[in-house]
Write a structure and sequence with these properties.
Length: 168
Amino acid sequence: MRHNRAVNHLGRKSGHRKAMLANMASSLILKKRITTTEAKAKALKPYVEPLITKSKEDTTHSRRVVFSYLKDKQATAELFRTIAPKVADRPGGYLRILHTGFRQGDAAEMVMVEFVDFNEAALASKKEAKKTTRRSRAKKADAAPAIEAAPAAVEEAPAAEAEAPAAE
């Protein structure tokens, strides 16, 4: 039984697992989006999100703590320079996991892990969605009498023309 065992070991020893998560986290920070299996993505999310929260406070101590997890100088610099300012107002939930299908060889569930604030396509569609306004019932009520009044005006026009020749 696996009672009270919260960590997914991913079929690896602890050193291998820590190195793999550090490499995946560095790749995610540098590339902003990676494709991996669902199990690895679910293990990566709780590994990276506290580092992003830690990077919001730019101190020597927080840089050293983040570097001890990532073990990559470029990824640490990228995290503190570009990612932290962009997610400064977000209280959490920095990553998004999108399912992409199954891998050809072993049918493993593949996912794409990306930063929420760095997906240009989603941000663009979000801005476009805000442009559309919700139509209220008042506008529909105003539009309905205008449509009904138009056919009545058309019906009255031929009658007026018929009366004009009779008057002459």
